[in-house]
Amino acid sequence: MSLAAPDFQQLVDAYYESLYRFALSLARNENDAADLVQQTFSQWARKGHQLRDPSLAKTWLFTTLRREFLGARRRSARFSDEPVTEEDASLEPPQAESLDAAAVMECLQKLPLEYREPVVLFYLKEVSYAEIAEILGVPIGTVMSRLSRGKARLRTMLTEKNA
Amino acid sequence: MPDRFDETDAVLARKLTEIAPPADLRARLLATAKTPEIVEAPTRSGNWLIGGIIAAAATLVLSLFLLGEWAHRGEPIGAATADISRFLSGKFDLALQTSSVVKVREWLTANNPHHQIDLPAALAGRAPMGCRELMWRDHRGSLACFSMGGGKLAHLAMFPTKIFADAPGSAPVIAKAGGWTRAAWSRDGMTYLLFVPEGTDPMKELLGFATDQRAGLIASNSSWSSAFAVENAASFAARIAPPVLTNSAGSSSFPNSATRSERPSRVISG
CATH number, domain at A102? Predict the structure, then answer.
């Protein structure tokens, strides 16, 4: 049984918000994030029909957006990472609740890219661990270790921000 | 073993969903879907330097030849309208895809270093799709594309005024060609050709005809942008004449346009 090719508008409606949030975490800039999403769907309009398995559309979109970002990053020095502290801290749910969304995104954006990508994809809840591994092009074990370290670092930063 | 999704994770995930994309992003994306012919320009790689040198040499030889031929005459703007309207109806690339009007202005300024680029304010307020270089009969110009909403696009082509034998003045001249409505006007040595899908309403809206207020201009540098911010429609109307309307046969008033516009649309290239 083959799945029908997803309608463009259905794809936009299903994923553009999550893609934008992923893009915002990568680009750290609303305009660049919107451009990344636009470039991603533009690529889909050109090449999406070549995808043989329509069920892979979601992974294709996230992978393409990441590739667009990395391409832009190579051409620009704007997207450098910032150092973060190494120690872990515990962040309790009430503390997390008191943070606003912008503060959470700001801390995510400060994570080194290798941790930022899996952590954001994890929190977006759109893709499985296996799909995160596919999007990032790394083994699933690497995803798990980066996720664990990335979450710990994020909690440290959020705790400091909340202090 | 999968990382545990604990209560704190759930809170953080929910916080992330509170971040909303720009209000017009969805509409811009859907406009992209309706214009799949707009594709990203291929990345230059490998032998681009050699190709560039060969292209530059060929352009130089051709330019020297054409310089003699066209030294004393310009191109008919009717032919440009016909060729560009055909070009816009086909498949073309965008060198820069962006939703940022700031980036569009930067790109246009970088690609037209000898001219002051003015975007109609009503157009600059629209969501850009991107821009590209436009070569027409060996004249280098630029093209900026904007989403009008509802899947409609507006395209602003711009060439140095000196290439036209019959360049319009500051008053927008309206014509129709190939399913497009075109407004053309000149300012500061640059001639602008604005194309919207045929029908006068989008053009009226963009140029402010409906309210008899002319669209303001936003310049590509900050000082002009600041000046625009305090300029009202009345003061702008004082320095721009009312539009001149022509019919689609308006090109007949342009010498040679009947034959020259017969050239194939590929006279336009990237």
Answer: 1.10.10.10
d(CA B73, CA A47): 44
Instruction: Looking at the structure, tell me whether residues A46 and A61 fall in a common domain.
Output: yes
Q: Read off the pLDDT of residues B214-240 as tens digits, 9 standing for 90 and up.
A: 333 333 332 322 222 222 333 333 333
Give the predicted TM-score (pTM) of the model.
0.56
Question: How confident is the model over A94-138, as pLDDT tens digits?
Answer: 777 888 899 999 999 999 999 999 999 999 998 999 999 999 999
> B217: closest CA among B188, B242, B174?
B188
Q: Which residues of A touch B99 (CB under 8 A)?
A: 31, 34-35, 38
Q: How far is A137 from chain B (nearest CA, A)?
A: 18
Q: How far is A97 from chain B (nearest CA, A)?
A: 6
Domain boundary among A44, A65, A82: A82
Chain B residue at shortest CA distance from A10: B30
Regarding whether A90 and A14 lie in a shared domain, the answer is no
User: Looking at chain A, which residue has its C-alpha nearest residue B43?
Assistant: A71
Closest CA to B181 of B189, B190, B172, B170: B172
3-state secondary structure of A12: helix
Domain count across chain A: 2
Q: Hey, is the C-beta of B99 within 8 angstroms of any chain A C-beta?
A: yes
Regarding whether A103 and A77 lie in a shared domain, the answer is no
Q: What is the ipTM of this complex?
A: 0.85
Considering the domain architecture, whether residues A48 and A114 belong to the same structural domain is answered as no
